[in-house]
Write a structure and sequence with these properties.
- This protein is of the alpha/beta class and 601 residues long.
- The protein folds into 2 domains: 328 residues, Metallo-dependent phosphatases (Purple Acid Phosphatase, chain A, domain 2); 208 residues, 5'-Nucleotidase, C-terminal domain (5'-nucleotidase,  domain 2, Alpha-Beta Complex), CATH 3.90.780.10.
- Helix content is 23%, strand content 24%.
- The chain has 15 helices and 30 strands.
- Strand 8 and strand 9 form a beta hairpin.
- Helix 10 packs across helix 15.
- Belongs to the 5'-nucleotidase family.
Length: 601
């Protein structure tokens, strides 16, 4: 097994050119250029195709429900849902897009793994790394979910080796790791102060040389369990990118792309919405806007992620020059195609006021042929997973929307909260009175229509695992009524949730009003907060169940760390499956009404 990810790379795509700076080398370079490229004007540039995607989350099989569609804006202003995603179709789409392109590089902006459906998650995401190798991914940044199982497991994803506890999954076959580098420029070891993984990567083909810098959001510790980021420091994205852009320039690398696992919020959820109307970048907000405005002009393009949104914007750099900022939604439903004009004399990207062609997000449709190698990969891992994956867990009477629903309260969120409350309500299980569930922990929908041969309305272990893949332990804790109200206010305020609220899903009997016409903490109507009809008493102590991520203050809920008298229960997945297990074909679970949070708009 090779010692570095660089040695893994396919040499047919990455040709290293080492040329001494002499008169003779000038002739060599001229000989390597396309006919006429050494001259002036348009012949001095070549087009480099940059294909990119983000937030794949191990979604090998075509995602179900609303998670398996993208919103498309029509010419008349209406929108429609278009089925999308599935690595068999993504592979075909990327391979088709590369045809006829002499210079093509594929990059990603983090969260390739973590929060994955069962087919990948059950095997600690080895199937996804194998699939990404087959996709010919050239480079990716880390995202927050790459740290779900800690840095040692992330390094195993890169360098290979069988799982330290579960061993090898296939007889006589050892996991070989990624054939592409993971970049983590702003993630440093607290003791050594050095990056935990490579900060940059230089892609070379013929005379073309492009540098990549990869970072994840500085707030990664706020959205990952403490154990996952233990001993690591996450540094400012802009400062880090600017530092390494200068270093790349010193190495003679003038063309630079930043892979940033942080993103923005477009004004429309349609993937083909024009975020440059009425002006450059006018239709997007969120953290990425300030980052884009402050990242050094040496960087030529920003590929972003984290928010699971789709956009292809033009936000001027600090020098006032146009610069593309893109994101391709999530789960492999889209990819972005960007054309970089590479100047063969200056070795830099030529940026003009109007990019031609402009970067575009393309749908991974399911009306193309499936890539046979991906079908074989999926079938192989499905066979290994089948004894567990196909086991029925329970029954539902209809679709129960979760991850794919754009609403503060999600029926599946209510169901999960109810399951956690029921698992811990007994006195000897913690005596929980209410449950809180973070919306980001709901990874999918529950679809009524059968995905396989189990029959409509049957929820298999594979499907329940896809909804709750983290195996977080449930914590039952003491919180005062005042702390509960503060937690509700932290949903819609503070540096993390003020601009992008994270609405907790709540168990039956817990109700309140969310007034979105107001701002910040005032959006919570304090007098409306009730438990089983009784107003919450700020001075009273309540027993509250939540997963260990929330109990550690994750997602900006710092007040939840102030809990007392913690009792650790079963895992969230076990609680969910136990709740499902009480249903029968004759008495399936009805989709919750999602009427616990009253929203004023």
């Amino acid at each position: 097994m090779s010692a570095t990810p660089q040695r893994h790379r396919r040499t047919r795509r990455l040709t290293l050119i080492a040329v001494a700076v002499t008169a003779a080398s000038g002739a060599m370079v001229a000989a390597a250029l396309p006919a006429g490229a050494a001259g002036a004007g348009k012949n001095r540039t070549v087009d480099v195709q940059l294909l990119s995607f983000n937030d794949f989350h191990g979604t090998l099989e075509a995602p179900q429900g609303s998670s398996g569609t993208v919103t498309e804006r029509q010419a008349d202003g209406t929108t429609k849902a278009v089925p999308a995603g599935g690595v068999e179709y993504l592979a075909t789409s990327l391979r088709e897009a590369r045809k006829g392109k002499k210079y093509s590089v594929t990059a990603a902006a983090g969260d390739m793994i973590g929060g994955s459906p069962m087919l990948s998650g059950l095997f600690h995401d080895e199937p996804t790394i194998e699939a990404l190798n087959k996709l010919d991914l050239d480079v990716t940044s880390v995202g927050n979910h790459e740290f779900d199982e800690g840095r040692a497991e992330l390094r195993r994803m890169v360098y290979g080796g069988c799982h330290p506890d579960e061993g090898c999954y296939e007889m006589g076959k050892e996991f070989t790791g990624s054939e592409f580098p993971y970049l983590a420029a702003n993630v440093t070891d607290e003791k050594t102060k050095r990056p935990m993984m490579s900060p940059t990567f230089v892609w070379k083909k013929g005379p073309v040389k492009i540098g990549f810098i990869g970072v994840t959001l500085e707030g990664t510790p706020d959205v990952v369990t403490a154990e996952g980021v233990k001993g690591l420091k996450f540094n400012d994205e802009v400062e880090t990118i600017n530092k390494y852009a200068a270093e790349l320039n010193k190495q003679g690398v003038k063309s630079i792309v930043a892979l940033i696992h942080e993103g923005g919020l477009p004004a429309s959820g349609a993937y083909n919405y024009d975020c440059n109307v009425p002006g450059a970048g006018a239709g997007i907000s969120g953290a990425i806007v300030d980052i884009a405005k402050n990242v050094d002009a040496k960087v030529d393009a920003l590929v972003t992620g984290h928010t699971h949104q789709a956009y292809a914007c033009n936000i001027p750099d600090p020098a006032g020059n146009p610069r593309t900022v893109t994101s391709a939604s999530s789960l492999g439903r889209l990819f972005t195609e960007t054309t970089l004009k590479y100047d063969l004399k200056t070795k830099d990207i030529v940026r003009t006021a109007v990019s031609s062609p402009a970067p575009v997000n393309k749908v991974v449709t399911r009306d193309v042929a499936k890539a046979p190698d991906m079908t074989e990969l999926i079938n192989r891992w499905q066979t290994l997973a089948a004894p567990i994956a196909n086991r029925p867990m329970g029954y539902i009477a209809g679709d129960i929307p979760g991850r794919g629903l754009d609403a503060p309260e999600k029926p599946l969120g209510d169901l999960i909260a109810d399951a956690q409350l029921e698992a811990t309500a007994a006195a000897d299980k913690g005596g929980a009175q209410l449950a809180l569930m973070n919306p980001g922990g709901i990874r999918s929908d529950l679809a009524f229509k059968a995905a396989g041969e189990e029959g409509d309305g049957v929820v298999t272990y594979g499907e329940s695992y896809t909804v709750q893949p983290f195996n977080n332990m449930l914590n039952v804790v003491d919180l005062t009524g005042a702390q509960l109200i503060t937690a509700l206010q932290q949903q819609v305020s503070g540096p993390l949730n003020g601009a992008s609220p994270k609405i907790l899903q709540v168990s039956k009997g817990f109700t309140y009003t969310l007034d979105m016409t107001k701002s910040g903490a005032d959006r919570i109507v304090v007098d409306s907060v009730r438990l089983n009809g009784a107003p919450i008493d700020p001075a009273k102590t309540y027993r509250v169940v939540m997963n260990e991520f929330l109990a550690g203050g994750g997602d900006g809920f710092g007040v939840l760390k102030e809990h007392k008298n913690k009792l650790v229960g079963i895992s969230d997945l076990d609680a969910f499956n136990a709740y499902l297990g009480k249903s029968t074909p004759a008495s399936p679970i009805a989709p919750p009404a999602a009427n616990r949070i009253t929203v004023v708009k």
